[in-house]
Amino acid sequence: MGKQPVELKAVVYALSPFQQKIMTGLWKDLPEKIHHKVSENWISTILLLAPVIGTYSYAQHYQEQEKLEHRF
Fold it and tell me: What is the pLDDT of residue 45?
């Protein structure tokens, strides 16, 4: 049982440099899409950002209090 070479055909996709309507679907109704995503996932966003912001603000407050403690 020997190995036999197998020819593979590759498919290459390319866009014309003169084609201007490549990403029109991305920008179409952009504010509506953003509003839909935010209104659909607002609870997940809050649950993700609240601990991050809370930890960061706690660390900043602690660092500031530590700096002020050595003043007096």
Answer: 87
Q: Which domain holds residue 64?
A: 29-70
Question: Measured at the alpha carbon of residue 50, what is the angle toward residues 49 and 51, in degrees to the nearest 5?
Answer: 95
In a domain, 64, yes or no: yes
pLDDT of residue 56: 97
Beta carbons of 15 and 22 less than 8 angstroms apart:
yes
Q: Are 38 and 45 in contact (CB under 8 A)?
A: yes
Fill in the DSSP letter of residue 29. T
Q: Does residue 14 lie within any of the structural domains?
A: no
Global pTM value:
0.48
Phi, psi of 53 (to 5 degrees): -65, -40
